[in-house]
Every structure is written in structure tokens, then in C-alpha cells.
Write a structure and sequence with these properties.
This protein is α/β, with parallel strands linked by helices and 333 residues long. The strands form two sheets. It has a seven-stranded parallel β-sheet, with helices on both faces. Helices cover 36% and strands 15% of the residues. The chain has two domains: 2-96 and 306-324, NAD(P)-binding Rossmann-like Domain (Rossmann fold, 3-Layer(aba) Sandwich); 102-258, 3-Layer(aba) Sandwich (Rossmann fold), CATH 3.40.50.720. Strand 11 (251-256), helix 11 and strand 12 (295-297) form a beta-alpha-beta unit.
């Protein structure tokens, strides 16, 4: 089966070097797939499977170029970057990876909390510059803080379990209560979580209902000096509102592994003024935030461990094989 594999990372290259996949004829690209991607007529005609990550834009226009496409597999849980309606119209199966990075993302989330509250990164940077100031890094104990977890699926559940080991008070908000954490997690409504939490961490998928879930109104409801963690999707936070809340002192610090318009954020210099284009605007605020010592920004790597990547790849290829055997493993549609 002919497959085009997009957004290949170094860890995935290693996977291909160590795993045999005789059922597939794979052409691999480091770039994303979108309507500007140039492929050969043969590739448009003979490709059966597209394998992508979240930065590809699989629009109706992209899908229509492929003549014999049967499957679009995304190496992610979210699939909002794929035109599902067009896939349904053309009877193209969409496959995702449920709950990938459960352990790796949860551990990274807690790591970001510790790094942020204990000022590990600025302390390390100053040491490299031969700046010695032992009294500059006064931090806070996690055990004395209330953690607000928005979304208690597989990753949110694991975050709660680790946070409980740190003796944190844990509040949670979700439409469904997770029975696995009920003994040490208190569920409350969204506004109560915003008003009460010292640290707020997001673990939700992105779709229309969660777009800019944290915006100006939500930040105003939070405690003064709150910390924000996002290892989920950048679109969940209005970055302009976050920046303004940090300037006003409402938000003490933030750790962001994901950003809206992620592919373009650091691909060009910081723009002057306030650009009208949304992605340019988000880029400007990302650069401004990156200059703040109370902000940690990392390039969407929370899931990126050898164990997690191997599991994602194994699951993706197994789900594709299962589809051709009549099984609906991880089938979105």
C-alpha cells in the first residue's frame, strides 16, 4: 500500500530504521501537507494512505487532489486539521491515536510546574552567564498549592495522580467525572476552579467549543499570581489575553508547550506594531512572552519520548492494518 508520511521527526526516523514495515511503500517528508504542497501526478493518483501530524492542513482542496485515497491517519488524538465532512463525502477513513503520550505528557506537565515555580531555567541561564545570585530564585512548594486540572481524560488523570503524590490539593473540571481519581480529586464547576486554583493546567482537545477557553474574562476571574500550564493545544488560550494578564500581574507565570499557529510562531523575526493577520499577531505575543523570565515556552515536545513516539507509530500502523482487516481500531470515521 502506497503511503505518504508527512512531518517526520528525528525520533520517527529512528523508528523507521529499527522497524520493518513490508506492507507499506512509504515516501517520507519532513514538511507538512497543505494545499501548497507539490507532489507528482503519480503520487496524487496512486497514494492510498496519508499519514500526518497536527500541523498539516487536510482541507477539501487537498483531499480532492488524491484520486484513490482510502485512509488519512493522524499521529495525534485531535483531528480538527482534517476536513471530516469531506472525508465522509468521499468515504475516506480517518484514524487517530487515542490517549497517546499519557505518561510522557503528564510527567512533562509536572516538570514544567516545578521548573516554573522553582525558577530553574533562569537560575541555570544566569549560571551560564557567570551571574551568581542565590537570593534571586525564591520559589514555592507544590504541596502548599491548589492545582486546577481542566480535563481529566487519560493525561489529566495521570497529572492528578502525580500531583497527589506531591500532596497538592487538586480541583478538577470535566463534563465526565473520572472514577479513578475520586479519592483525592474534588470536582467543581469551571468558574470555581478559576477562582480557587493557584496553578491551572489544561488537558482538553481542541474544537470549536474549547477555542480560547481561557480568554480575558476567564483570566479576570483567576486568583492574583496564578500560574498557567498548557501541554494540550495552543488554541485553548487567547495568547493576547494571557500576555495582558501577565503585564497586569494577574498571571504570575506560564509554561506553554503549545501555541496557536504553531508552525509559524518562530519562523520569522518579531513583527513591529500589531499585525492584522492573526498568526502574525500570535507570533508577536509569543516573542514578547518568550522574553519574560516567568514564562517557559517549548516547541510541542511534551509527548516526545522514545517510548511515546514508538507507541504512537506502533498504534498508527496497527490501526491501518486493522482497517483493511475489517476492524475499527481508533477509527474516527
Amino acid at each position: 500500500m502506497k503511503m505518504l508520511f508527512f512531518e517526520e521527526k528525528e525520533t520517527e526516523k529512528t523508528y523507521f530504521e529499527t522497524h520493518e514495515l513490508p506492507d507499506f511503500e512509504i515516501t517520507r517528508f519532513e514538511t507538512t501537507l497543505n494545499q501548497n504542497t507539490e507532489l507528482t501526478e503519480e503520487q496524487y493518483r496512486e497514494t492510498v494512505i496519508l499519514n500526518v501530524f497536527i500541523n498539516s492542513e487536510i482541507s477539501k482542496e487537498v483531499i480532492s487532489k488524491f484520486k484513490n485515497l482510502m485512509i488519512i491517519a493522524t499521529r495525534s488524538t485531535g483531528y480538527n486539521h482534517i476536513d471530516i465532512d469531506e472525508c465522509k463525502r468521499r468515504n475516506i477513513a480517518v484514524i487517530n491515536v487515542e490517549n497517546y503520550g499519557r505518561t510522557s505528557v503528564a510527567e512533562y506537565t509536572i516538570g514544567l510546574m516545578i521548573a516554573l515555580l522553582r525558577k530553574i531555567i533562569p537560575a541555570n541561564e544566569n549560571i551560564k552567564r557567570h551571574i551568581l545570585c542565590k537570593d534571586c530564585y525564591n520559589g514555592k512548594d507544590l504541596s502548599n498549592m491548589t492545582l486546577g486540572v481542566i480535563g481529566t481524560g487519560a493525561i489529566g488523570e495521570t497529572v492528578c495522580k502525580i500531583a497527589n503524590a506531591f500532596d497538592m490539593k487538586i480541583l478538577a473540571c470535566d463534563c465526565l467525572k473520572n472514577e479513578n481519581i475520586k479519592d483525592f480529586t474534588e470536582y467543581c464547576d469551571f468558574d470555581e476552579l478559576l477562582k480557587t486554583s493557584d496553578i491551572i493546567t489544561l488537558h482538553l482537545p481542541y474544537h470549536k467549543s474549547t477555542y480560547h477557553l481561557l480568554g480575558e474574562n476567564e483570566f479576570e476571574k483567576m486568583k492574583d499570581g496564578v500560574y498557567i500550564i498548557n501541554t494540550s493545544r495552543g488554541e485553548l488560550i487567547d495568547i493576547e489575553a494571557l500576555y495582558n494578564s501577565i503585564i497586569k500581574g494577574k498571571v504570575k507565570g506560564a509554561a506553554l508547550d503549545v501555541l496557536e499557529c504553531e508552525p509559524s510562531i518562530f519562523s520569522h523575526p518579531m513583527p513591529a506594531g500589531l499585525p492584522q493577520n492573526d498568526c502574525l499577531k500570535y507570533t508577536m505575543y509569543a516573542w514578547l512572552l518568550a522574553e519574560n523570565p516567568n514564562i517557559i515556552i517549548t516547541p510541542h515536545i511534551a509527548y516526545c519520548t522514545t517510548d511515546s513516539v514508538n507507541k504512537i507509530m506502533d498504534t498508527t500502523f496497527k490501526s491501518i492494518k486493522d482497517y483493511f482487516k475489517g476492524r475499527n481500531t481508533n477509527l474516527v470515521f
